[in-house]
Amino acid sequence: MVPGCDTREVLRERGQREVFCGLTGIIWLHRKIQDAFFLVVGSRTCAHLIQSAAGVMIFAEPRFGTAIIDERDLAGLADANDELDRVVTRLLERRPEIRLLFLVGSCPSEVIKLDLSRAAQRLSRTFSPKVRVLNYSGSGIETTFTQGEDACLASLVPELPQADAGKNALLVVGVLADVVEDQLRRLFSALGIGSVDFLPPRQSAHLPAIGPGTHFLLAQPYLADTARALEERGAKRLAAPFPLGVEGTTLWLKAVADAWSVPPGRFLEATKAARERAARAIAVYRQQLAGKRVFLFPDSQLEIPLARFLSRELGMELLEVGTPFLHRTHMAPELALLPRDTRLSEGQDVEKQLDRCRAQAPDLIVCGLGLANPLEASGFTTKWSIELVFTPVQAYEQAADLAELFARPLVRRMRLAV
Amino acid sequence: MQLTLWTYEGPPHVGAMRIATAMRDVHYVLHAPQGDTYADLLFTMIERRGARPPVTYTTFQARDLGSDTAQLLQNAIRDAHERFRPAALLVGASCTAELIQDDPGGLARALALPVPVVPLELPSYQRKENWGAAETFYQLTRALAGARAPAAGSVRPARDPQRRPRCNLLGPTALGFRHRDDVIEIRSLLGQLGIDVSVVAPEGATAADLARLPDADFNVVLYPEIAGPTAAWLQRTFGMPFTRHVPIGVGATRDFIREVAEFAGIDAGPVLEQERSRLPWYSRSVDSTYLTGKRVFVFGDATHAMAAARVARDELGFNVVGLGTYSRELAREVRELARAFGLEALISDDYLEVEARISELQPELVLGTQMERHIAKRLKIPCAVISAPAHVQDFPARYSPQMGFEGANVLFDCWVHPLMMGLEEHLLGMFSNDHEFRNGAAPSHLVATQPPASAEEPSAARAVTAGDPMPWAQEAEQELGKVPFFVRGKARRNTERFAHERGVSLITVETLYEAKAHFAR
């Protein structure tokens, strides 16, 4: 099939969407970029969301906070920009090690049209050169869950230095666990690909340079705006499935190998050990999962690559694959690998989707935290999906860990005798 | 604008959700943007409820703002009624929907649904979770019981002496701190007194139950933050008295028993004589003498903080060195109690301010919320949690009330166990050079669950002594090292303060002991 020409029917729904907003991405972004702080400009709800979304409180003082808008700001009694300057000044005094500050827009800040991009420019001038201030929106009216990471990374793109023309370089885009990045660096090095950068970097001072010689590879399936911004700066996207599972990782690496004209023999040799090891490790879980029927609720936009992995490498039967948003171009290589008869749904009407789900009585339901316990209490087995964005699951060495995340709830249900 | 790292309370619509979720046949339609559904997981994950909260969200997005969000809301109300068939419907807006002013109440009325529809106006930019819960409970009760109000000025008839006295228990909600077990404990206590419980609300109640609240003789207000306005309205409208004593601790439970006995017109004597709390004896037991005068900082919602201060002082023999609350609605009461303790209350919902106060006071025990548990952990001060915000650990599998005589037993255990046991404390003081004691041995019974504390006091405690660092003579520094780690930070601070006040330029062993004598209690 020609990529991008998948014409399958997609069930589109518009009703209650049981999903997080883009602010949630701060929970992993603030640990990835070690000298960045995320200041949400929003309401008490925003602060409460971030504090509650992880299900637990984080013990160390987090590198995120909320500037809570109050009635004085709304009534115009206080100038919201003056207030913001005061809050940012207090924050940077308290955290002198911060080098990059994101002002993160929210639903209320957007509805009252608080211009955070101007505020970021103004504050950047005040605190430059020590602190760079950027802004993006994580609001629920603009973004769903992982799209917050997309918006954050897109805001970094204009800050990337210009690379020398003619210099070929690879940029891997999307937050990955540090251990996964290190593994990938070794693989790229074995393939003979010299210059490899990751976006976002672990330190804000290490922003990678990009230019017309940059090829980028998306490590996450939800980075539409970031990809567009990179393309506008002349970088070229390498189309590939996403690096989940052995097959996904191989095809993802292969896209780079082909662009760099790595000889097929060398590619096989460089990936052989990890590939075979991963396939052996997965086989254990395939025995447990093959033939099991799985239903995926829309959540992180990882659903389609996950479904491909569950179906092709673990032999699971896909009942419905929901995604909050379907990016047909970026998903084309994934859709080409999904069984033709898989029901895809985009958007959500949670009550109707729950009706469909219960009617099909899946063996395993992949869903968000708001739904998981109620489904368990009514006898279903669930895999709560936020764990999939909080766990290193990409690349060969994690393929079996990813499989295990789906096997564990089923194993647990079998173990428990109470 | 307020800089916030952690919040003690959610927005007011989460308070409304706590009422709707507590009840059995009420549904809440919330006009809210995509993402606000996160609040479901408070109930399904933190409290581990087996059912989704009865809440329908409109989850509008930017593209809807250009078209008709009002229509979206009306559809959501109609669909929710159709699907869930509630006995009463709450409609309201979250913070963002409040800004777009779609008038949920008016839109719902226009649908002319065949059930009571209660519009909620919860100002998100002024108010918070507990206020939202209190307002929702009050509005709902008014809407459902208001029609039964007698004519103004009519006198409530006396109870038929043939009928046992009966009361309502008001205040327990979903996501409430130990509400589940408090209700069991107080119901049993009232049973011993011969008082029937007519309705428990909102937890477990139906809309019809709220309508029959006026049938009871009086109301027991378990949580004034939530049930205060409702109880006051029931008193104004139906002449029903309500309790002022919250039965947390032995003394408060005795006061509560006397209060309800008076409302019920019965003799409390027999029940008071059969009191079965172990706290009074455990506190008198000689091994508890080491608790005497322990310096305690108390912070929480107003009800739990005030109760904890009284228990700490009168029932465990602690010194309360700080008292505060994030409940601004009850700030006056907390200020008064603090004054009676010779303190100035800390009324704040700013976590950073509370942290600064604790590190300044260097208490030996913190009784606080999960936030203070984090602060105390960082400052290496023992801590027990006494109040919401609710955390998954605040829903223990075991029975663990805070109220009544069993609640007092729970308080004794939970507050005393984090502390170093008496004789162990002495051994550490005497033989601090023992290699197993060094580097800050944690209480031996907690070692398995607690990483060993580091040798030096936490940096946050050091940071409080602002200004130039005070120089210490080497011998003095070594002598300080012999002080058990859990009081070493306080000893250092006191000595430095003492030296600073006297203009001492170098702290010697003499200064250390001068300061010790000066600050001896």
Number of helices of chain A: 17
Strands of chain B, total number: 13
Main sheet summary of chain A: 6 strands, parallel
Shape of chain B: globular
Largest sheet of chain B: 5 strands, parallel
Count helical runs of chain B.
23
The CATH topology of the largest domain in chain A is Rossmann fold
Terminal residue distance of chain A: 50 Å
Averaging pLDDT over every residue of chain A, what do you get?
93
Helix content of chain A: 40-55%
Describe this structure in words.
The complex is a heterodimer of chains A (418) and B (521). Chain A has 418 residues and is α/β, with parallel strands linked by helices. Chain A is built from 17 helices and 14 strands. Chain A has helices at residues 26-32, 44-53, 71-74, 80-94, 107-111, 116-127, 147-156, 178-190, 224-232, 245-259, 264-289, 303-312, 328-335, 350-360, 369-377, 386-389, 396-415, and strands at 10-14, 36-42, 64-68, 100-105, 132-137, 169-173, 196-199, 214-218, 236-237, 293-296, 317-323, 344-348, 364-367, 382-384. Chain B is 46% helix and 11% strand. Strand 3 (64-68) of chain A pairs antiparallel with strand 1 (2-4) of chain B.
